[in-house]
Design a protein that fits this description.
With about 350 residues, the protein is an all-alpha fold. It is built from 16 helices and no strands. It is globular and about 65 Å long.
Length: about 350
């Protein structure tokens, strides 16, 4: 039986300390209230209703709040109970990253990667808040492992797992989950050793799986008559597709051209404090009030790494990663690629 790497245990312990020591220090009261509301009824649980009356839906899909609801149901709704899953997930991600990297790049690279994830401020922050980002990051990490294993083994189950995990990511934070999808699919197309017709078939299949899982919840919401479900929060037209493609879609990928337009989730006057839910009247919301807080971590894409608040936390990793990649990748290429660059795809697939 293989023993655990002591360096991994130490790295995971550091990461766990940084995350669990912050447990309960901060919660987004908007999402805490959502979890408390969801525990009141199956209707609220499925539609991720912000309020106990089931009048207004939260501005994100329900998966991350379903996960938070488990400890909240056992220990009661509190700052630390809704943040507990994120701390656990963040610690597991450290070990998962190590196990994913070691077979390919060796022990040293795995330890360095795990240690960076354990201590980088952005990771510690999202793993000690009750927002969807921690679960999304972990789901995408598992998806990356699955697509690599699909290439290595050729087994359908890893390809299906990849599609399902990407769909779960979509149901955690919608289109933000698809940011790495082109890179995942490009990797599979370039590296998988199949005849072209099989490659097309497999790629089409996995895209179909991830789309099917992705749209499962939003389709049910879209097909449910508006009088039988909560109002779709953060939208002006009560449309789940507006939430998908505008609020949680296009608006999150245009921050580099100016301030992102924001609409407040529809809610009663006076946001409830942590763990409390203020009742709403029976009437449907008619208007959207100006926002009081922003419930999201900023999304700036690649360009966001060059400006605050991401630059001082993650930006320094970008040049380090690019230089390290060049030092490893360039010497490893055969001389044939330098003479005939068009052979690069074939070399990568070999």
């Amino acid at each position: 039986m293989r023993t655990l790497d002591p360096a991994l245990l130490a790295t995971a312990a550091i990461g766990a300390f940084l995350r669990f020591s912050r447990l309960g220090d901060y919660d987004n009261s908007y999402y805490t209230a959502t979890v408390a509301s969801m525990l009141q009824s199956i209707h609220n649980m499925f539609f991720a209703s912000f309020d106990t009356a089931g009048a207004v839906m939260v501005d994100k899909p329900p998966v991350s709040f379903w996960v938070q609801a488990f400890p909240a149901a056992i220990f009661g709704v509190s700052r630390w109970s809704v943040t507990l899953p994120e701390a656990i997930i963040g610690t597991l991600a450290i070990a998962m990253l190590y196990w994913a990297i070691r077979p390919v790049f060796g022990r040293l690279a795995a330890i360095v990667a795990a240690l960076v994830l354990a201590v980088v401020p952005a990771s510690v922050v999202i793993d000690s808040r009750n927002e969807p980002d921690s679960l999304l990051s972990f789901t995408l990490l598992l998806a990356a492992v699955s697509i690599v294993r699909a290439v290595q083994t050729g087994k359908w189950r890893w390809l299906i797992a990849f599609g399902v995990l990407m769909g779960i990511g979509f149901n955690t934070k919608m289109l933000v989950a698809f940011i790495p999808l082109p890179a995942f699919l490009l990797f599979y197309v370039l590296v998988a050793k199949y005849p072209i017709h099989q490659l097309v078939m497999r790629t089409t299949f996995v895209v179909g799986v991830l789309l099917l899982v992705s749209v499962s919840w939003v389709t049910v919401v879209a097909l449910t008559p508006s009088e039988n479900r909560p109002y779709v929060g953060s939208t002006p037209d009560n449309s789940i597709w507006t939430l998908v493609f505008e609020y949680n879609g296009i608006n999150r990928f245009t921050s580099f051209i100016g301030p992102r337009p924001r609409q407040a989730p529809i809610q009663p006057v006076g946001r409830p404090s942590s763990g409390a839910v203020a009742p709403l009247g029976s009437g449907r919301p008619q208007s959207i009030q100006p926002p009081t807080i922003d419930a999201d971590v900023p999304d700036g894409g690649l360009l966001g790494l060059f400006t605050n608040p991401l630059a001082n936390q993650l930006g320094w990793l970008l040049p380090v990663g690019v230089i390290s990649l060049m030092l490893v990748f360039v010497p490893a290429l055969p001389e044939e690629v330098y003479r005939r660059p068009t052979t690069l795809p074939r070399v990568l697939r070999a």
